Amino acid sequence: MLWKLLLAHVITDFVLQSKRIADNKNKFIFNLLHCSIFFIISTLLIINDLNITNLLIIAIISILHGLIDFGKAKLEEKDYKELNWVFFTIDQLLHIATIIIVLSIFNPQFWSLFHLKVNVILLSRNWFKTLLFFLIITFGGSYFTASVCKRFTPKKNNDNSLESAGRYIGILERVIIFSSILVGRYELIGFLIAAKSIIRHHETGNKAFTEYFLIGTFTSFIWAAGFTFLYLKI
Known about the structure:
Blueprint: H1 2-15, H2 19-23, H3 28-45, H4 52-76, H5 84-106, H6 110-123, H7 127-149, H8 165-183, H9 187-201, H10 207-233
Helix pairs in contact: 1-3, 1-5, 1-7, 3-4, 4-5, 5-7, 7-10, 8-9, 8-10
């Protein structure tokens, strides 16, 4: 049930969530709609094991899901653009933690069985796990990259460098290089060099846009490479 609820969360947050819902989670009607989608998807995924207890579990998780999103929406109203990626990460971790905690409350043996079964669950190549990682890498990566790039959005007709962009590009470059060496995939460094060379060759003088593009590219690359590596290892 854990994998199915996590899959329902990913489908709700990354696949079926429209921009209108994402931008208006601080409003009751949009938050309710978002939570209802999670409730429906979760119910459909566990339809074969549906009972009163499981419906109650899904209902509680759905309500907590809405409260977490409402809190995140309120924080984003403060316009802390540089912290958008932090809010995104904390938001997703809270959703995952909520699912695990609620399951453990309704199943006292959950924690004891979790340690015994986690290796089997993680190592089994079932389609729920495969679909989960696929959606995280594809759709989740879009949201994460957008949250990182939000603070760097260049203004129109702005040829100046973005604030702190060079520092962030350097950090992202080193993360890619470190990760490539760590997993023994040195061709990824070649990708990095090629990407920078192509961008530099086609640079039109708009330095801000070039830096914005590099940040988005490297962030998306790290997200995809990181979760692919995680999928292969667990």
